Prior knowledge:
Layout: E1 8-14, E2 29-32, H1 37-48, E3 56-60, E4 63-64, H2 69-76, E5 83-90, E6 96-102, E7 107-113, E8 118-123, E9 127-131, E10 137-142, E11 148-155, E12 158-163, E13 168-172, E14 200-204, E15 211-216, E16 221-226, E17 230-235, H3 246-253, H4 259-268, E18 276-277, E19 281-284, E20 290-295, E21 302-307, E22 311-316, E23 321-327, E24 332-338, E25 343-348, E26 353-356, E27 367-371, E28 378-383, E29 390-395, E30 399-404, E31 412-415, E32 429-435, E33 439-444, E34 448-453
Parallel strand pairs: 1-5, 14-18
Antiparallel strand pairs: 1-2, 3-4, 3-5, 6-34, 7-8, 8-9, 9-10, 11-12, 12-13, 13-14, 15-16, 16-17, 17-19, 20-21, 21-22, 22-23, 24-25, 25-26, 26-27, 28-29, 29-30, 30-31, 32-33, 33-34
Amino acid sequence: MSSSNKSQVKIRLFTREKDETLHVQDTPMYAPISLKRYGLSEIVNHLLGTEKPIPFDFLIDGELLRTSLDEYLVKKGLSSETTLNLEYTRAVLPPSYLSSFNNDDWVSSLDVDKESNYIVSGSYDGIIRTWDMSGKVLKQYAGHSGPIKAVRVISTTRLISAGNDHTLRLWKTKNEALKQDNNLDNGLEDDDENIENGKTLAILVGHKAPVVSVDVSINSRILSASYDNSIGFWSTIYKEMLSVDPMEEFNSSSNKISTAAKKRRKLTLKDNSIRRRAPLALLESHNAPVEAANFDLNDNTVGYSVSQDHTIKTWDLVTSRCVDTKTTSYSLLSLAQMPTLNLLACGSSARHITLHDPRVSSTSKITQQQLIGHKNFVVSLDTCPENEYMLCSGSHDGTVKVWDVRSTTAMYTITREDPSVEKGINDKVFAVTWAEKVGIISGGQDKKIQLNKGDNIFKN
């Protein structure tokens, strides 16, 4: 390269997107090394002849460009005579604020009924609520004797919840907006016509401490994570689990629990007509509270768990055995799987998110990458339903961050929008979920459910 071109670098532009209107001739060209994404987007739009500018992201060797070309060359120790292959892809626009719903207490857990797009929340007041998109509460479920820490939609007629009262509850629900189809429920329909909609079908007992996480598989199984250091393995079909006599359970545990816990147990026994069921198995290997347990999305006979004991464990759910343990340097507080990338994302007490490949031997380097940016505990994670590289995280720092794992820094930060919320005082985010037709939903200490959504441009 001549001295007159030292301020330029040779680039080759290409895209893997199937939209033929986005393809430009990939002949190498020279570009100023000072260019960042905006300037590079101008070049691509000019070459495409677009009527309206399209924002683009750029990847070099699979890594998102977040600096100028010059800074990238310096960071990688490359000469300006290097030819850079830049893959361009439609950019992800910032998720915009849609609305907030007022709840009566802290919002600790969230899920979405994918059939109806109703939002389901669990709260510290012990109530589960189903919301429509306008913020109207359609149904309330009361029965837990303590704060609810986890809630998941099983089907159009079933919910599962878990909380500080040490129990899980299977609920009967009915989505009035849908025409019921027995095939949707995978055999969950049973002889419970006498049980009212919104009532408890069964109480699942066996944990000896708060239950803080639940996950449901497509083969009618449930995993629960508890502060008793164990993971519960259950069925969504209560008939498959052994019955537990409520008084026998109370008497056997009453001498091991606190006075407050005894009072909670007595409250749960006030209606002995509710059936109680024991777990199919209790998985024990952690030596500190378990914060999350998930099924492998590619193989529902495999489970993963993370704990305050700094470990990620892999479980064979057929034999109920721990088959792998990966040790980190910090307490792990949340978990999400990115199945097509073979990665587990783990939120930590060290304020970052670490990415791990569960297939990698425990004796080798287990951390593939760290996502850094939060200023407090990362307590909730969920993946983008439309882009395999993206996830969102909720933190006690009061923010939700949107990430693309091809970069170590966050793409966008979502803050709490209510001006009455004093930042840093009562704005902790406890739960976040990402639903395809709804957007990013978050809840927390401000007693609000907040909705943010991008402009249909999340697809890669």
